[in-house]
Amino acid sequence: MGRQSISFTEPNDEWLKAQVEGQEYSSKSELVYDLVSQARSQQQEINYIRMKLEKAEKSGFTNDSKSDILRQAKSQ
């Protein structure tokens, strides 16, 4: 595992300390790891939605009904 040294502004450092003191996390490192993991997961979701939107934009217009479109979306 890579080791890093990170500097935080005082308000951010205080927030990190409060999370650890509140026993949400056992250390600042654990908290930062969790935050990075959450950010990566969110980015994957954003990328998936972006891909779906781009695919939809390229597919053009349709004469399908709303229920047909919903059925197609749920089947994918």
What's this model, at a glance?
71% of the residues lie in helices and 0% in strands. It is an all-alpha fold.
Give the helices and strands, then pairings.
Blueprint: H1 10-21, H2 28-59, H3 66-75
Structure write-up:
By secondary structure, the chain is mostly helical. It has one domain (10-75). It has three helices and no strands. It has helices at residues 10-21, 28-59, 66-75. The longest helix is centred in the middle third of the chain and has 32 residues, at 28-59. The chain is elongated and about 55 Å long. The two termini are 37 Å apart. The model has no long low-confidence stretch (mean pLDDT 92).
The total of beta strands comes to 0
Mean pLDDT: 92
| Helical/strand content category | mainly alpha
Most strands sheet:
none
- Which residues form runs of ≥5 with pLDDT under 50? none
Strand content: under 5%
- Total helical elements: 3
- Classify the helix fraction into a percent range: over 70%
Q: Any idea what the shape is?
A: elongated
Q: Element order, helices and strands?
A: HHH
Overall tally of domains:
1
Distance between the first and last residues' Cα: 37 Å
Specify Rg, calculated over alpha carbons. Answer: 21 Å
